[in-house]
Design goal:
The protein is an alpha+beta fold. The chain contains five helices and four strands, in the order αααββαββα. The chain has a four-stranded antiparallel β-sheet with strand order 1-2-4-3. The longest helix has about 70 residues.
C-alpha cells in the first residue's frame, strides 16, 4: 500500500521521501560508526594529556628524589665523620673512670673528681630508633707544676673523641709551693641510641 501510494505520488514527493531516508540513514550511520570513534579519539586525546602530565610530574619527583638522596648521603657522611669525635656511653664511662689514671700519668696529683650527672632531656618526642647527643661533664681538681698540668691538658685533648675544656681555674695553695691547684671542668658528648634505652 505504501509502495502504491509512493508510485502514485509526484516526483517531488518521491525525492523528498528519498532525501529523508538518506538523511535518516546518514544520522544512524553517524551514531553507529562515527560518533563512537570520535568519542574514543577525544578520550584518547584526554588520556594522552593526562599521561603527559603524569610523566612530567614523575620526572620532577624523580629529580627531587635523586637530589634528596644526594643530600641524605652527604648528611650521613657528615654524621659519620662527626660521630667519630663523640663518645659512646661505654666509652664515656671508661673515660671518666680513667681520668685519675690519666692525671697521675701526666704527673699531677688528683684532689677530687666530680662527675656532673645530667639526665638527658626528652621534652620532645624522639622518633623511634633515633640517636641523640648528650653532654656529660666532670670537674677534675689536680695539683702539679705548670708543665705537668699542660701535659694533662694535651693528653685529654689528644684523644680520637673530642674533650672540651670548659673552664680552668688555677689557685696557688701557698706562696712557697710551685704546684698550683687547678680546677678543670671538661665536657664530652655521647651519642645515645633510643633503642638502647628501651
Amino acid at each position: 500500500m505504501l509502495l502504491d501510494n509512493l508510485a502514485k505520488s509526484s516526483r517531488l514527493s518521491r525525492s523528498a521521501v528519498s532525501t529523508v531516508l538518506i538523511v535518516i540513514s546518514v544520522i544512524v550511520m553517524y551514531n553507529w560508526i562515527v560518533a563512537p570513534r570520535a568519542a574514543f579519539l577525544r578520550g584518547a586525546q584526554r588520556h594522552e594529556i593526562v599521561a603527559g602530565n603524569i610523566a612530567h610530574k614523575h620526572e620532577v619527583i624523580s629529580k627531587k628524589v635523586i637530589e634528596k638522596r644526594k643530600e641524605l648521603q652527604k648528611l650521613q657522611e657528615q654524621f659519620t665523620k662527626h660521630r667519630e669525635i663523640l663518645f659512646t656511653p661505654e666509652q664515656a664511662k671508661e673515660f671518666f673512670s680513667d681520668l685519675q689514671t690519666i692525671s697521675e700519668e701526666a704527673g699531677c696529683a688528683v684532689y677530687s673528681l666530680n662527675i656532673l650527672t645530667t639526665a638527658p632531656s626528652r621534652k620532645q618526642q624522639q622518633p623511634q630508633n633515633a640517636s641523640y647527643i648528650v653532654p656529660r661533664s666532670a670537674t677534675l681538681t689536680v695539683a702539679g707544676v705548670y708543665e705537668k698540668i699542660i701535659r694533662l691538658m694535651k693528653r685529654l685533648q689528644s684523644r680520637t673523641q673530642k674533650v672540651w675544656v670548659d673552664s680552668i681555674k688555677m689557685e696557688i695553695l701557698d706562696h712557697d709551693s710551685v704546684r698550683p691547684k687547678c680546677d678543670i671542668t671538661i665536657t664530652i658528648y655521647t651519642v645515645e641510641d633510643e633503642e638502647a634505652d628501651v
